[in-house]
Every structure is written in structure tokens, then in C-alpha cells.
């Protein structure tokens, strides 16, 4: 027995030693990939010495003797801090995520291949101007130099994720940067998703279904979708199984996301310091690390500073000494779905205007981790690529014997958007900048510009032209053989300026009469005669919901409590307490208040109760709140109160009854999760953001360390916009948001402020992985100066690059 005990003791000690040794080795190899920001490297590809001066927040300030050397250093800095993120974005555009994520990423790869994102990027390289080609090549050389340094010095493969996703790191090419821009363009467009939703609503309730999208763009009158395909058979709408509400992070920048932003500016006579002001907050899926990365470059045209996306050598939103700029996705219908009829018995032929025609086709191979390779056949009609996987609801509206094709302005092999963005960084005034950005193709942008004296706002990009007799005006899928549904042309928007409204311009991606956030922002900007940097910050961080202010007075018109309080602890008392809180609420979606949670749960339950019986399974996929619809129902516009009657029930319900039932249901659901005391509930307990790491965040034990979970104020209709998941176990979780915020003050340029949602580094063991996250959540910013002396004085590390000699 004593011998057995001794052997067990030895085995236990050995296991402990092995475990400690494994942890030490893991820590050692993981930390090897944290770059030394005080190192000196002798590198090929630069003409003279370059310095990368790192600020306290790890923002690189890059100084070199030529623009090419500066772009080289930006590529190296991006690769130092975000190499895995860059390769992930490149894989997403190439359709190669399945190689590291397995079968769950296959649908994303399949769609990226069919959209030809990377193929069109490669074709567009030679269409860039010479300055942009030089920038792309120098940037790629800088990325590749760091990959070479990682290999030569055994720097932990460049990032710890590469140990868990053991794939070779291909050298960077200029086309890779253009491919990421193509991916961003695809993610910015939501036109196809809107078409699919309208068609599903039309099929579910032909008479009134599309009223759900009242005031959200598109023609006022639409044909019934079934009338467009009179001889076709449509499948019954599917009831898709709901997930837990969390989006997949391996394809976080997905086609059809519909990204947003705010951009606004003020003329000198509307500012306290008599200089122009500009604010911009481009939104993106909230992941760790953030999509955005702060950087400063000293180019021959002057210093430029602001937000980049790793993988591209441009400041997307920022300023130089004379000019500030911000980009907002334009509310442009840039895509159409065409339903192609396949010839019976001949899957490679389709119905064209003049009869049956051959589909063009090409075969490609998608490699899948731990599975056999998958062969796919890409097919193309005269209308574009066939894309059956474009949208989850597309199968519901595709007639039997048909396949959807996509027309999209981003399907261009001569896209000069990158040249426009590179040129913008060197512009010296708003007028010259406006001419430069006319080269934008996709995504289409509302560009806000401010120089020392003027502000301008213009919409640029490629836009489709449709005939006056187009059968749906681009709002619904169309029969692919109908020539009247063709685009008559794709034209470059003329870039004409939007008129200033008393010295103020503003842009959001919202369109249609129910542009609530735009209305709120306009009120904030016009309510003050004189603005300052701080008032622009306050507007950017505004958390008041105009939707709540609009809906609560009409939805609760007959419910506000004025009598004796009910007994404590009863459902009636809970309802009374909730209504009392809402009656005094100003609409501020503060994370510390119960009212935003009560309101959000009530409106969600109300909308679901209004549409459930009419739309059936389609209601399962309606995750967003549609305030214009609820407003029309309770005001009975055009008989919209018909939605209040539940068809399956014997009595005829009125809207007040439905509103009360929805409130009771919402209170019951919240009580089960947060307890019975209505006043103790907090919006921040439900409205959280989980910024997940795309690899380590999926591993049990590590996810609690690398994923950043924070409570947030704001909501889907506040200026500080954070759209909600709307379903699953976390219906009020924030999914996207302003991953970057910037406010630029040209009266005192160095007082301009910036912030991103995580930290600069993508390495979870770096102190810069999440050091900006708390500031971002609290609505705070950091300063970044173009003064070289200030940058060097506050440096916490200087990386020196010296030309290698043969």
C-alpha cells in the first residue's frame, strides 16, 4: 500500500510539473509575438530611415523621408499589432475562411466567391493612379517585411491565433487591400436584404404586409410579389430555428450588414472659436480587436491622422493640417435581385429576353478544415452572379424553377475608390477634396468635408439608373428576362454639395420619412446657435431615443395610470409602476435606468403581437423595431389599425387592448429574469456588448479573458446608435456600434479627439488590447497631435527602420 501511495504521489507531482511546464511554454510562445516597440530593424524596401513613434495609447506616428517609406512603415505597424485580423479580413474577401474555421464558414466563403470580391479586386489594381499603386505596393512590402521578421526571429508566428489556426501566412499583395475595401462595400449595402424582406412580407399578407416597412424607403405603392411571377409556385415560408442571439465572429464583416454612421459639420460663424468643426462615427460589428486602428502618417503633403482599417493604407476618417473629413454610407439603392427562370431539364440555361440562353460558369474549390475539399460551380446570367445564399430568407421568395441573380454596383473590375481615398488624404481644401472623391465607386459615401473656412457635404459613388416603367422601382426582386427591369446605366454621382442648413450639414445612412435619428441630430445641431468641440461631442454621444418619444404618447394614450395603486406585488401594481416610470421619462436610453428596458421590451412584444398572426413564420425573422409601422397602426393611417385584430381569436381586439397585453407580457418576461421590482431593473443589465475575439473567444476558459463585455447606454434610434440583436437569449444585446469616434476642431487642430472601441493591439496579452475600451464605453476620447515634437516628447516606444545594405 505504501509503494502504491509513493507511485501515486510521484505521478501527481509529475503531472503538476508537466502542467506548469506547459503553461510556461504556452506563455513564452504567446508573448513572443508581442512586438518590441523600441527595436531597430534593418529592412529591405525603404530608401531612408523611418521612425514609428508610439504614443501612450500605442498610436503609431510615422516619420520617413518619402511617402513610400511612410506607407511601408504603416504596413509594418498594422502587421505588428493586427496581423491575424488582416489575414482574417483577406480570407473573408477571398472566400477562404473555411480553411481555418471548418464547415461553419462555408456559406460565407461560397457567397464571397459568387460575388467575386477578390477577383474584382485583382482586376481593379491597374485602374489605380500611380500614387495609389505606389502606396499599395509600399504598404504590402511593409506587411511582408514584418512577416519576414516574424519568421527570421521566431516571433511566435506573429500572433497567438496562428498556433491554433496553423495555416501558412501568405505574403501581402496590393489586391489584398482592394479586396478588404470590396468586403467593406458589400457589408455596407443593405438593398438586397430589404428587397427580400419586402417580398416575404408581400407573400405573407399581400394586402398589407409591406406596411411593416412604412416610411423606410422604396416606392409608396408596390405590386404584389406573387403577381410578378404568376405561373410560379412559391414554397411555404420557413420557420428557422433561432440561435442564442450571438452572431458568428469568423465572418463579422458580412455582405448585407448595412453599416451606418453619422457625419456632421459646422461653419466658422456657428462655432465659438470661429473655426470649422466636424464629427464622424463610422459603425461596424463590435468585435475584439476593433475593426478600426488609429494612426498618424507624415506624408509629403503634410501630416494626416485618424482611423484606418488594418489591411488598407488610408485614413478613412480624420484630418490633415488644412482639412478634416468623415465618411457615412450613403442611403443608396445600389443592388437589385433578378429571379432567373432555369430551363426545365437544362440547369445551365436560363430564360433571357430573346429566349433560352447559356449561363456562364466557372468551377472553384473551397478547402474545408478537417473535411474533403468542396467543389462549387459559379454561374452568371446577364444580370450578374447567381447567389442563392445571399440572404437567409431568399429561399422563401424564390419560385420553383428559379434562381436569384444579383446586380450590384460593387461588382466592378475597374473600381477607383482606393485612389480617391488615398488622394483625399493630401487634399488641402474642401473644393479640391470634393473633386478627388468623385472617383469613389463602392461603397457609395456621403462625404463630409471641412477646411479652415468652409464645409461641404456630397454624395459620391456609382448609382444605378432605372427606367421610369421599372416594375418595382428596385424595391422588389424582378423577373430576370424583363428588359424594363434592367438598369439603363450605372453613373457616377455628380458629387454636388448638400445645401447647408444655417451653417450646419449632417448625414446619416437613414432614408425615408421615418429618419428618426437624423431628425434628432438635426434638432441637436440647430438648437444651439454657437457650437464648440464639446457640444459636438455631446451630440455624438446623445442617447435620447426619438422613437420612444414618438411612440409612447400614442401607444400608452389610454393606459396612463391615474387611479388608486393596486396591491403591492400584483401584476397590476407592476404595470402601474412601469407606466408611472415611463410617463416621467425623457427618452434617454441610460444604462442606469429601468425605463429604457421597459420601453424596449414593451415595443418588442407589441410589434410581435401585431404581426404574429398575419405574417406567421416570417415574424420569427423580424428582429428590428419598425417605429413608423407602430405609429401608423395606432394612428390608424390608411386603415392600419387592422393589424391590432388577432384573426385567430373570436373577439375583435382594439389597439389599446393589444398594447396592454403586450406590456403585461413584457413585464412578465422581465420579472422572470430580473426580479419583480420594476424600479430595480437596469437597461445596462440587458443592453450589453460582447466584443468577441474571432478565435480565442470561442474557447471555454479563455473567452472570459479575451472577450470584452460591457454595458452600454443608447439604442437603435439614438444618435449614439447601438442596434439590438432582437432575438434569442440576449434580445437587447448590442451587435454593432460606433467602433470609431472622431471630432475635429480646425480652430485648434491639436484639440481634436479620437477613440476606438477596444485597444490598438490585437494581442490579448498586450496591455493595449483593451486599454481604450473603458474610455469608449464612458464616452471619453484621447487626443492625437500632428506636432512631431509633442509626439516624440510623449513617446513610450520608438521603432526605427533602417535601409538594409547589400
UniProtKB/TrEMBL annotation:
SUPFAM superfamilies: N-terminal nucleophile aminohydrolases (Ntn hydrolases). The chain crosses the membrane at residues 7-30. InterPro entries: Ntn_hydrolases_N, Pen/GL7ACA/AHL_acylase, Penicillin_amidase_A-knob, Penicillin_amidase_dom1, Penicillin_amidase_N_B-knob, S45. Pfam families: Penicil_amidase (PF01804). Keywords: Hydrolase, Membrane, Transmembrane, Transmembrane helix, Zymogen. Belongs to the peptidase S45 family. This is Penicillin acylase family protein.
Amino acid at each position: 500500500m505504501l509503494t502504491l501511495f509513493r507511485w501515486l504521489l510521484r505521478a501527481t507531482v509529475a503531472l503538476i510539473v508537466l502542467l506548469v511546464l506547459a503553461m510556461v511554454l504556452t506563455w513564452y510562445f504567446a508573448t513572443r509575438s508581442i512586438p518590441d516597440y523600441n527595436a531597430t530593424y534593418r529592412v529591405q524596401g525603404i530608401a531612408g530611415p523611418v521612425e514609428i513613434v508610439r504614443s501612450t495609447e500605442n498610436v503609431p506616428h510615422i516619420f520617413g523621408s518619402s511617402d513610400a517609406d511612410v506607407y511601408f512603415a504603416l504596413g509594418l505597424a498594422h502587421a505588428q499589432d493586427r496581423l491575424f485580423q488582416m489575414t482574417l479580413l483577406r480570407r473573408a474577401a477571398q472566400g477562404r475562411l473555411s480553411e481555418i474555421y471548418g464547415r461553419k464558414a462555408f456559406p460565407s466563403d461560397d457567397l464571397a466567391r459568387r460575388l467575386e470580391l477578390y477577383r474584382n479586386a485583382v482586376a481593379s489594381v491597374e485602374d489605380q493612379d500611380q500614387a495609389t499603386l505606389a502606396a499599395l505596393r509600399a504598404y504590402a512590402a511593409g506587411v511582408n517585411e514584418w512577416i519576414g521578421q516574424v519568421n527570421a526571429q521566431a516571433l511566435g508566428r506573429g500572433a497567438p491565433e496562428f498556433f491554433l489556426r496553423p495555416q501558412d501566412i501568405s505574403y501581402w499583395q496590393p489586391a489584398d487591400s482592394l479586396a478588404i475595401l470590396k468586403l467593406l462595400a458589400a457589408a455596407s449595402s443593405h438593398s438586397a436584404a430589404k428587397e427580400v424582406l419586402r417580398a416575404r412580407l408581400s407573400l405573407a399578407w399581400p394586402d398589407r404586409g409591406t406596411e411593416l416597412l412604412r416610411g423606410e424607403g422604396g416606392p409608396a405603392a408596390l405590386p404584389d410579389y406573387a403577381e410578378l411571377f404568376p405561373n410560379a409556385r412559391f414554397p411555404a415560408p420557413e420557420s428557422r430555428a433561432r440561435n442564442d442571439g450571438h452572431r458568428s465572429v469568423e465572418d463579422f464583416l458580412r455582405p448585407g450588414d448595412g453599416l451606418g454612421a453619422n457625419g456632421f459639420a459646422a461653419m466658422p460663424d456657428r462655432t465659438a472659436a470661429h473655426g470649422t468643426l466636424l464629427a464622424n462615427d463610422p459603425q461596424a460589428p463590435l468585435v475584439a480587436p476593433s475593426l478600426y486602428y488609429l494612426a498618424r502618417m507624415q506624408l509629403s503633403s503634410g501630416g494626416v491622422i485618424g482611423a484606418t482599417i488594418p489591411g488598407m493604407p488610408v485614413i478613412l476618417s480624420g484630418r490633415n493640417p488644412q482639412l478634416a473629413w468623415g465618411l457615412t454610407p450613403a442611403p443608396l439603392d445600389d443592388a437589385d435581385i433578378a429571379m432567373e427562370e432555369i430551363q426545365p431539364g437544362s440547369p445551365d440555361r436560363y430564360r433571357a429576353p430573346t429566349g433560352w440562353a447559356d449561363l456562364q460558369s466557372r468551377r472553384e474549390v473551397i478547402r474545408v478544415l478537417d473535411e474533403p475539399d468542396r467543389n462549387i460551380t459559379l454561374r452568371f446570367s446577364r444580370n450578374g452572379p447567381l447567389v442563392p445564399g445571399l440572404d437567409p430568407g431568399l429561399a422563401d421568395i424564390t419560385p420553383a424553377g428559379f434562381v436569384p441573380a444579383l446586380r450590384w454596383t460593387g461588382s466592378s473590375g475597374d473600381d477607383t475608390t482606393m485612389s480617391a481615398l488615398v488622394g483625399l488624404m493630401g487634399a488641402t481644401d474642401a473644393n479640391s477634396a470634393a473633386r478627388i472623391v468623385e472617383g469613389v465607386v463602392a461603397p457609395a459615401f456621403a462625404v463630409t468635408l471641412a477646411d479652415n473656412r468652409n464645409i461641404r457635404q456630397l454624395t459620391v459613388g456609382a448609382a444605378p439608373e432605372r427606367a421610369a416603367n421599372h416594375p418595382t422601382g428596385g424595391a422588389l426582386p424582378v423577373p430576370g428576362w424583363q428588359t424594363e427591369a434592367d438598369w439603363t446605366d450605372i453613373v457616377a454621382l455628380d458629387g454636388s454639395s448638400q445645401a447647408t442648413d444655417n451653417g450646419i450639414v449632417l448625414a446619416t445612412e437613414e432614408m425615408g420619412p421615418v429618419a428618426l435619428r437624423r431628425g434628432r441630430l438635426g434638432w441637436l445641431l440647430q438648437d444651439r446657435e454657437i457650437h464648440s468641440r464639446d457640444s459636438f461631442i455631446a451630440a455624438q454621444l446623445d442617447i435620447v431615443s426619438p422613437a420612444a418619444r414618438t411612440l409612447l404618447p400614442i401607444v400608452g394614450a389610454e393606459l396612463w395610470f391615474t387611479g388608486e395603486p393596486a396591491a403591492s406585488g400584483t401584476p397590476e401594481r407592476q404595470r402601474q409602476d412601469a407606466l408611472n416610470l415611463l410617463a416621467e421619462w425623457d427618452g434617454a436610453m441610460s444604462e442606469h435606468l429601468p425605463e429604457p428596458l421597459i420601453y424596449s421590451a414593451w415595443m418588442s412584444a407589441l410589434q410581435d403581437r401585431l404581426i404574429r398572426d398575419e405574417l406567421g413564420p416570417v415574424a420569427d425573422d423580424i428582429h428590428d423595431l419598425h417605429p413608423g409601422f407602430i405609429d401608423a397602426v395606432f394612428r390608424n393611417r390608411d386603415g392600419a389599425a387592422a393589424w391590432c385584430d388577432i384573426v385567430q381569436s373570436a373577439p375583435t381586439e382594439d389597439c389599446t387592448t393589444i398594447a396592454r397585453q403586450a406590456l403585461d407580457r413584457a413585464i412578465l418576461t422581465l420579472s422572470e429574469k430580473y426580479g419583480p421590482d420594476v424600479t430595480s431593473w437596469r437597461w445596462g443589465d440587458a443592453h450589453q456588448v460582447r466584443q468577441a475575439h474571432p478565435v480565442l473567444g470561442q474557447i471555454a476558459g479563455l473567452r472570459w479573458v479575451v472577450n470584452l463585455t460591457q454595458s452600454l447606454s443608447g439604442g437603435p434610434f439614438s444618435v449614439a446608435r447601438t442596434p439590438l440583436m432582437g432575438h434569442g437569449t440576449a434580445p437587447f444585446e448590442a451587435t454593432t456600434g460606433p467602433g470609431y469616434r472622431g471630432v475635429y476642431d480646425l480652430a485648434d487642430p491639436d484639440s481634436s479627439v479620437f477613440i476606438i472601441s477596444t485597444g490598438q493591439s490585437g494581442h490579448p496579452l498586450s496591455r493595449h488590447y483593451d486599454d481604450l475600451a473603458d474610455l469608449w464605453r464612458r464616452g471619453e476620447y484621447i487626443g492625437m497631435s500632428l506636432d512631431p515634437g509633442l509626439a516624440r516628447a510623449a513617446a513610450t516606444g520608438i521603432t526605427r527602420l533602417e535601409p538594409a545594405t547589400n
